[in-house]
Specification:
alpha+beta, five-stranded mixed beta sheet, Glutaredoxin, 40% helix
Length: 148
């Protein structure tokens, strides 16, 4: 008696082992093509800077604008990192629940995703340094970092 899987095989394969070996060969060929494609065309990743605009009147919007300007000015909006295309975007949001860290100064809070680095009291004047150090060189700015 045939199993359900064997019964559903195409009838033009007289030997069921031929079907399985050709299917396995096809899968291997597909995997080889996929790995070649990955090496030829780097995968794209995305990095986002979420800037809180809720707790300070206007400073979050100003920080977001300054970050966007610096990303473009420093040529770091789109870059290739370790063979992968990486796009960096600035996104404003209502609340990051970090008010306790920003009420000490005139800046805004922001989180860099996917790293999860949290910065507090960021002012528009800090944008150039933040973009150059964190986005450009991958170094965390210790003076602005918020320890969780």
């Amino acid at each position: 008696m045939l199993s359900v899987a064997e019964a559903s095989l195409p009838q033009h394969y007289p030997n069921r082992k031929d079907y399985y070996s050709s299917r396995d060969a096809s899968a291997a060929l597909s995997m080889t093509f996929f790995s070649i494609q990955i090496s030829l065309f780097p995968m794209s990743t995305s990095r986002r800077l979420f800037v809180c605009t809720n707790q300070k009147s206007g400073v979050g919007e100003d920080v977001a604008k300054a970050l966007k300007k610096e990303l473009k000015h420093q040529g770091l909006k789109k870059q290739v990192v370790d063979g992968h295309k990486q796009r960096t975007q600035v996104q404003t949001c209502d609340c990051l629940d970090l008010c306790r860290d920003c009420k000490k100064g005139p800046g805004a809070a922001l989180i860099v995703y996917p790293e999860g680095t949290v910065y507090g009291n960021v002012r528009p004047a800090d944008a150039a340094e933040l973009v150059a150090e964190h986005i450009g060189q991958g170094k965390v700015l210790k003076r602005l970092r918020v320890e969780e």
